[in-house]
Amino acid sequence: MLYLVIPVFNRRAYTRACLLSLREQTCPEFRVIVVDDGSTDGTAQMLTDEFGEVEVVTGDGSLFWTAGVNAGIRRALVHGATRLLTLNNDVLVPPDFVEKMLLWANRRPEAVLGALELDAATGQPIYGGERVNWRTNTSQYLLEELPQTRRHGLHPVTYLPGRGLLIPLSVIESIGLFDEQRLPHYMADYDYTSGARQHGFPVYCNYDAVLSTYPEESGQQQTRRHRSLRGYYQHLFGIRGGGNLRNFTHFALKNCPPRYMPYYLLNGYARRLVGYFLH
């Protein structure tokens, strides 16, 4: 059985829209677990009143993304889940999303799968996976190289985001859960999928399954939109900071090949120190 795990903290309207889109799926062979990490905007009551089919795991506000996802996965495993799919609440999925993910999951049962990401406002593709060159700390973005005629099926990538990530049970049995101790919020998804690939599990972006997101509403974008010294500090050191230096260091030490480590770290630090002001 496929279990969808959705960590949430406030943003009730996004959660409602996401869950309503899941109700429209052509393939009903899944169950949903929402991890509500202490929302204060009425999310808990909405889930009770409007989504009785959804199982809710409650946190106290200290879980953040990684521990929230892990809590949902643990609950799903108790129920006998054979596949897990992590999904952010600020995501909309078309009716065939689960069907298209399971189609390829059945064909490649050991693979970790992501989805092609569209901008909810424009419908245009904005992320379709990447392949990292560890030596130069650069990425080859698939959307920039794939012509329209090849934007279908599976394409191998280095890692994947967690906002539409299908994980077979065999991966969890092999490498465990997400690293909530060292990567409590950002980069835990990239770290996990990169680690799965290093352990021999293929990692693909599934171009036949699409989801829509709101890129301007991400925490990183909002922090950069209102630049300040406090925001800069949060960017570099806060748990939700997209440029968190400690998180980047942990990710690099776990995933970058040792021979490329010195340059990868120095280049990554420089990008984070100045990137806040450039984007």
UniProtKB/TrEMBL annotation:
It comes from the Bacteria. Belongs to the glycosyltransferase 2 family. Keywords: Glycosyltransferase, Transferase. InterPro entries: Glyco_trans_2-like (IPR001173), Nucleotide-diphossugar_trans (IPR029044). The keyword Transferase applies. Residues 4-127 form the Glycosyltransferase 2-like domain. SUPFAM superfamilies: Nucleotide-diphospho-sugar transferases. This is Glycosyltransferase 2-like domain-containing protein. The keyword Cell membrane does not apply. Transmembrane segments: none annotated.
